[in-house]
Amino acid sequence: MSSPTFSSSSTADDVASAFSNEIAGKNVLITGTSKNGIGFETALAIAKHGANLVIITGYNDQRLKESENAIKAQVPTANIRRLVLDLASLSAVRTAADEVNSYSEPIHVLIHNAAAAISPFKLTVDNLETQMATAHIGPFLFTKLILPKVLASASPSPSPYTPRVVFVSSMAIRSGSGSGVNFETIAKPDAATYDAMDAYSQAKCANVMTALELCKRARGRVNAYSLHPGVIFTNMIQKEESRELAQASGLMNADGKPNTTGGVEWKTLAQGAATTVTAAFDPRLNDKPGAFLSDCAVNDEIVPAHCTDPGNRAKLWEVTEGIVGEKFVF
């Protein structure tokens, strides 16, 4: 049987269908799964193609219930579990992690999809910048706390399996400079120097750096990947707080619709989730830990040096440990 090939137009269902044998029986936790988002589309495709358990998360249980109902409307047999997880609160992250650690099942795949809106300067309850907290610091702590559940899914030969952690990043990593992240403002955000798009780029750089450093420190016990899903008209970009910036950058027209004449190649939600499903289940990635994907394929050459630099990655890891007040060790 030939290996499947995908393109920018492939959907999450296309990929999940091709890798249904890898999905079957797996327990998958996906952050940020509200309807009209790529996390929801990822959860739907995985549930449709045989996952044993799909854990959907978000900070609003009512919206999670809507997502659960929408998935079950298409896949009545889906085993969906809701988890309230507010990544913008370290206390809430710890509470959610305690709940996961009480589950009887291991976690085969952890997908970090959630992100905050690209918006004016805002602090979390922990006095952290919201984009960096939601996309990097909260996920870092959550991964550290549920690591035993992730490691418990590993299996030796004759059917070896290495757990996966997937970070939904962005091509915005290429707009950063220097170290890719500002190590001073991660712990002490500065409203005077804040730029919303730069903050987004820094958070997405942090995703790539964490994936690479996690692979290094795990020494083969976990495989982590990061990816660019494409440009998608998700619920995040449609939020009122993001609208002005989206219009100023040319992504959105004055009427609030996607700008299809500005040279941007828009993807549907299902197309946007395809690369996430690839990163989570494509067995061809087993010997490519730390890979960066776009359009369902490895695309490491586009990752800038400020993301791959070992010194930057180690420093980000240590700075983040300092913020959460815990050492992330194996």
From TrEMBL:
<dbReference type="GO" id="GO:0016491">
    <property type="term" value="F:oxidoreductase activity"/>
</dbReference>
<dbReference type="InterPro" id="IPR036291">
    <property type="entry name" value="NAD(P)-bd_dom_sf"/>
</dbReference>
<dbReference type="InterPro" id="IPR002347">
    <property type="entry name" value="SDR_fam"/>
</dbReference>
<protein>
    <submittedName>
        <fullName>Short-chain dehydrogenase/reductase family protein</fullName>
    </submittedName>
</protein>
<dbReference type="Pfam" id="PF00106">
    <property type="entry name" value="adh_short"/>
</dbReference>
<keyword id="KW-0560">Oxidoreductase</keyword>
<comment type="similarity">
    <text>Belongs to the short-chain dehydrogenases/reductases (SDR) family.</text>
</comment>
